[in-house]
């Protein structure tokens, strides 16, 4: 499979063997914080920890492009509200917001998108 190493600690002659980690972040971004709260997936509705869910922000055009162009020429302000969407990991992979990474790259932290 790969060379995922389990860590060992020694305390007064005892050896404690921990389970190997598949990802350095354990799939979450909370670090040492406690509970981070939950959000609902926009697509399937499942409850996901907020620090594990993928957040996607976007804007909605309320007015058609040609009409908006004419209104802006006359000096009108057209609001475009920001839409916030949360996706669980399986839905984010399905909608290609995330890509499946190799074993080596899973352990590297950094921008995924």
Automatic annotation (TrEMBL):
UniProt entry tagged with the keyword Ribonucleoprotein: yes
GO cellular component term, pick one: cytosolic small ribosomal subunit
GO molecular function: mRNA binding; structural constituent of ribosome
A GO biological-process term: translation
Highest taxon of the lineage: Archaea
PANTHER family on file: 40S RIBOSOMAL PROTEIN S26
InterPro entries listed in its UniProt record: Ribosomal_eS26 (IPR000892), Ribosomal_eS26_CS (IPR047864), Ribosomal_eS26_sf (IPR038551)
Keyword set, alphabetical order: Ribonucleoprotein, Ribosomal protein
Name of the protein: Ribosomal protein S26E
